[in-house]
Amino acid sequence: TIARRLVESKQSIPHYQVAMSIDMEPLAELRSDLNGKLQSVGIKLSVNDFLVRACALAMHEHPDFNASFDGDAIVYHAAVNIGIAISLPPERGGGLVVGVIREADQKSLRAISGESKALAEKARTRGLSVEEMGDSTFTISNLGMFGVDHFTAIINPPNSAILAVGAALERPVVRDGQVVPGSEMTATLSNDHRVIDGAMAARFLQSLKGLLESPSTLLV
After folding, report:
1. Can you tell me the distance from the alpha carbon of 24 to that of 13, in angstroms, rounded to the nearest whole number?
2. What is the pLDDT confidence band of residue 47, given thresholds at 50, 70 and 90?
3. Which residues contact 103 (CB under 8 A, 6 or more apart)?
4. Around Cβ 43, how many Cβ atoms within 10 Å?
5. How many CB atoms lie within 10 A of CB 78?
6. CA 123, 137, 95, 186 torsion: positive or negative?
7. What are the residue ranges of helices labelled H in the chain?
8. DSSP 3-state of 138
9. Residue 27 and residue 31: Cα distance in Å, rounded?
10. Were both Cys, which of 36, 110, 119, 159 would link to 99 (CB 3.0–4.6 Å)?
11. Residue 201: CB atoms within 10 Å
12. What is the DSSP code (8-state) at residue 89?
C-alpha cells in the first residue's frame, strides 16, 4: 500500500520544493525551560511537538495548505489535521505510516505531545487503525533525530504539501554584523503546484519561521 501510494503521488502530483533556514536557539531555550517544569508530571516536549503546533497555526493563517486538489476543483477542509510520519521497526516490515493528530490548531503542546507519543507507540507495536491514519490535511516528516541535514519528502495524497525537517545544526551565523555560533534547522516544503504556487509556499514558510523563532507564541 505504501509503495502504491508513493508511486501514485509522484506520477500524478506536480511536486516542487521550497526551503528555508530557521534559527532554533529560541525554541531550544523555551523547550528546555518547559521540560524542566514538566518533568515532575512525566511530560517531555519534543521538537516535533512544537513543529506540529507551529504548522497547524500557519495552516490556519494560510488555508491553501489545508486544501486538496479534486479533479477540477480545490477543496478547502474545515479541520486542520496534521499527519506525522512514523518509521516502523524491521519486525513490523519497516517503512513509514502516517498517524494523524486531528484539529491540531485547537490543541496545546501538552495534548499534541501525548497524542504523538501514543500514535508512535501503537504504530510500532500493535499497528494503527484506519481512523488513526485517515483524514490528514498536511504531513510532517522529521529526520532530525538521525542527524540528517536536509531532505525532500513525497506528498501524502490527498494533502497539498508535506514539510521535511532535518536536525538543528550548529553553524556560523551573522548577528548584528558579527559572525557567531548559531543553531539552524532547514525546513523543506514539497508542494502540489495545482494548489500552491511558489509565493504561497514562501509566505507559509515565513509564518512558520516567525512562530518557531518566537516560540512563546505557540503557548497561547
Report:
1. 31
2. very high
3. 79, 80, 81
4. 16
5. 8
6. negative
7. 2-12, 25-38, 47-61, 109-125, 130-133, 198-213
8. strand
9. 6
10. 119
11. 23
12. P
Residue 185 backbone dihedrals phi, psi, to 5 degrees? -120, 140
For the full predicted model, state whether its pTM sits above 0.90.
yes
Residue 66 phi, psi dihedral angles, 5° rounding: -115, 40
pLDDT at 91: 83
Picking from 179, 148, 160, 132, the residue whose alpha carbon sits closest to that of residue 62 is: 160
Kindly state the DSSP code that residue 126 receives in the 8-state scheme.
T
> What cell was used for 94?
519497516
Looking at the chain, how many residues does it have?
A: 220
What pLDDT, in 10s, does the model give residues 12-29?
999 999 999 999 999 999
For the chain, the straight-line distance linking the first and the last C-alpha, in angstroms and rounded, comes to 39
Residue whose entry in the numeric block shows the C-alpha cell 504531513: 139
Q: Return d(Cα 172, Cα 13) in angstroms, integer.
A: 37
Rounded CA separation 112/53 (Å):
8
Residue with cell 509503495: 3
